[in-house]
Amino acid sequence: MEAALAFNMVLSGLVEAYASTVATAFTILVFFYVFFCSFTRNAKLPPGPFSWPIIGNLHQLGNLPHRSLQVLSKKYGPVMYLRLGSFPTVVVSSAEMAKEFLQTRDLAFASRPPSAAGKYLTYNYKDVTFVPYGAYIGHARKLCVTELLSAKRLESFRFIREEEVSLAMRSIWEKSREGRLAVNIGKAIASLTSAIVWRILVGARYSDDDDGDLVGKEFRDMVLEIAGSIHEVNIGDFIPYIDWLDMQGIKKRMKKASRSFDGVVQRILEEHVKFKGTQTSKVKDFMDVLLEMAETDTMNIGEENIKAIILVLSVGGIDTTSTSVEWTMNELLRNPHVAKKLQQEIESVVGKNGTVTESDLGSMEYLQCVVKESLRLYPPGPLMFPHESTEVCTVGADGPERFMGKDIDIKGREFSMLPFGAGRRGCPGASMATRSMELMLAHLMHCFDWSVDGDPSELDMSETMGIALTKKENLFAIPALKMPNWI
């Protein structure tokens, strides 16, 4: 009944707006559906639910697709087959099979399907996230890993992370009126993450007030709009025959958000070009590095490539990190014995009135365990960006031939946790994200004791999907200063 209702709602919306067009389109689509069914009837596919004509299983995704797919996987298994609109889809939810797709058969599944986000937000696939696999993505990712996100480059930005975290702790104390008011932890961490990421990417100061190079609300709203449009299920991506209708208005919003972002980044890009080479004492930000790479690179990386890379790093770096820290703080408030043990470890490393630096984080084993457990419970992206197969292959086949010519450790690599993906399309910014998370959490727990009004076990744990798995309601908590000599 639910599936039939969803199917009828889609058709009725089309008929109201485009009655004559839909009549013809419906006939054509049914023909393709019948053809597809006859073509795949004898294919060896994983089990899965019944799919309707045209929409397939789209109606079963719901507002929280990761939860809906979890329910379906309990019935159909860790590898199941869905048809999302016109596209046959395999959903994998086991460590063993994730390794098959992301490591053993990584190259065959390293591409991306076409999407409105890739076309309209990243200058027609000039980024490193949405672009289909090919010579460019392999080269661009290598440059990102070796030049932008190398250990040496991340270390050069250490002073930025430490400086912004310290400023944020003081701001939290002032906004709480010295511990008398609850602070919006989600908003505070989002502002802190934005400040760090924006300075690292383009060297500009971010502020929630009017004293920065870029006013916080303008930038935050712009990033949230882009992240929201990336997450939203665009029917046209799954049913290309009706993509031109833009039924949900997603493409229109993407184009508007892209123009806003382009206006900001183009201005900053022109400033970087203008002052290139004149600020010898300045630490090079990502845009400086990308401009240098553009001059010497053989793959013809241009201005649009630079702006597209800055866009995906802005959206991905800000939303995912801030969300993960907020979820972790939420769990620490619900589990005070864990919070106390973490604070004791931090004090044992830096002292009661010491300041946490990044060089201290390696000595905080329990902090690293807290971060890992939080990422296990609340992965930044519970659903990875879709992978597209580019060749016919058999996954999970039995037989000794699969091990021929390969030196494989039978203990393998652990694939039960993939908060940042894996393989050729894994997140290149994972090291920066975890380093920032650990530093933020260490300061938050070392500078303050935290409490909430009411029972911590009753804190709201509801979720909402964006580009990251975010809390539906922001976390509010009251800080009590632990370091009297700090103020």
TrEMBL record:
Heme binds at C427. GO terms for biological process: paclitaxel biosynthetic process. InterPro entries: Cyt_P450 (IPR001128), Cyt_P450_CS (IPR017972), Cyt_P450_E_grp-I (IPR002401), Cyt_P450_sf (IPR036396). Pathway: Alkaloid biosynthesis; taxol biosynthesis. It is found in: Membrane. PROSITE patterns: CYTOCHROME_P450. The chain crosses the membrane at residues 17-36. Keywords: Heme, Iron, Membrane, Metal-binding, Monooxygenase, Oxidoreductase, Taxol biosynthesis, Transmembrane, Transmembrane helix. GO terms for cellular component: membrane. CDD domains: CYP71_clan (cd20618). GO terms for molecular function: heme binding; iron ion binding; monooxygenase activity; oxidoreductase activity, acting on paired donors, with incorporation or reduction of molecular oxygen. It holds the Pfam family p450. Its cofactor is heme. Gene3D superfamilies: Cytochrome P450 (1.10.630.10). Belongs to the cytochrome P450 family. This is Cytochrome P450. It comes from Taxus chinensis.
